[in-house]
Amino acid sequence: MGSVCSSKRDAHDDDNIIRRGFSSRRFKVGRSSCLESFLLGRGVDCPLGRNNCPSLMELCVHRIRKDLDKYKSFSMLPRDISQLIFNNLVYSNRLSDDNIEAFRDCALHDMWTGEYKGVKHNWMDVFSSQGSSLLSVCIFGSKVTDFGFCLLKKCPNLQALSFDCCDRISEQRIKELSGLPKLESLSIRCCQCIMDSDMQPLAGIASLKDLEIVCLYITDYGVSYLRGLNKLLVLNIEGSHVTTSCLDTISELPSLQSLNLNRCCLRDDGCEKFSELSELKVLNLGFNHITDECLVHLKGLTKLEGLDFDSCRITDDGLAHLSGLKNLEDLNLKFTLVTDDGLKMLSGLAGLKSLNLDVRQIADSGLAFLTGLTGLTHLDLFGAHITDSGTKYLTYFRNLQSLDLCGGTLTDTGVENIKDLSYLMFLNLSQNRNLTDKTLELLSGMKLLVYLNVSNSCITNDGLKYLKPLKNLHTLDLEYCNVTSFEIKKLQDNVLLNLVRYRPN
Hints:
Layout: H1 14-20, H2 35-39, H3 56-66, H4 79-91, H5 97-100, E1 110-112, H6 123-128, E2 136-140, H7 146-150, E3 160-164, H8 171-175, E4 185-189, H9 199-202, E5 210-214, H10 220-223, E6 234-236, H11 247-250, E7 258-260, E8 282-284, H12 292-295, E9 306-308, H13 316-319, E10 330-332, E11 354-356, H14 364-368, E12 378-381, E13 402-405, H15 412-415, E14 426-428, H16 437-443, E15 451-453, E16 475-477, H17 485-494, E17 501-503
Parallel strand pairs: 1-2, 2-3, 3-4, 4-5, 5-6, 6-7, 7-8, 8-9, 9-10, 10-11, 11-12, 12-13, 13-14, 14-15, 15-16, 16-17
Helix pairs in contact: 3-4
């Protein structure tokens, strides 16, 4: 089958694999911390407007989606068009038993359904019908069983496989994954059947570059089987019962660039092994018992681009050890002990793009130290005490795409300093009880908004009319406001055609 511009995976995809090791794929209701994964929700369909000349591909997909019920098969279409239609149906929550069969034998590269709740057992037969063309499969929390999983043997070129929270797939089937010789990325999250002994056959997949095993029952012993995975770029063992001793094995993985040890049992003792991970670009140490003492061993990891210290006992003194990490782009200090004074240590990290300061001790004066970080695209101030006065510092961050500002002290006056952040796509202003319909009026010019949360405010049904220009809006949260689901539904049906999720519902 022909293809207009078929995508292929090669060495250039390694950087994307590394990034996935840092960013969660889960979409958290009420938070915009997963902007990257949300934007990567494949095949977002841009509405056709009068002022924009759509591409031929857009016209084709738009037309087919409009008349979806008329088609029994897309196998005669170029693969790229079929792929876009599939992605679009997943994104818009319209993929179903009635239309999945139309994708049989389409030679698609990606059957990426993510957290889509509609995946059925019989869909695996359609997935496997893509044969040697199929490169990636992602399902989450589905009812797929061993039988459906075994059908993937028909896809010998499979490179990426994710079956998170699929508890009907047995330990025996997982051991057979070594039969997929080209598998580079494997994610098995929250599957209770994975034990230390299962790590041995997984370690036999020599082509692996990305391994994500999120399971409570994995210990240091299980990790020891991973010696020899010389191509491994990403290792995610979040939530495992490992200690700092696992670094004895991990430090011997020569290519490792991304390591997620979130929610493990790490302490400062033994952290000196981190200094041996010279190629590391991404490190997640959130929810561990580490302190500033651990950060001493990170200051030599000059290639680091992402660091996560969520809920660790990191203080202002610890941030001093990060000042030399000039390549740092993502930094999560959520629920740490950092104060306004500590933010001075970050002022020299000019490359920062994403910064999480969901910290109760952060206030207006702390933002003043960050105004030189003009490259920020994501800023989380969810629990910080930022007032209307402090929002003036936000005007320095002209490239922001995502902003959380939920400390409860904001009024319509503060929104005046937000409305001109023209690149914002995700905006969370929840918990600010004093916001009124005036806020929606101020935001009406932010036409790139995809996600908007102004829950727990004084917004009413009368303010909904200001949302009409926001044609790209996908998710709207106005819970605990004086707004009814009936009025939002009317807006969805008549104006906001891309709106998929909304509250109240």
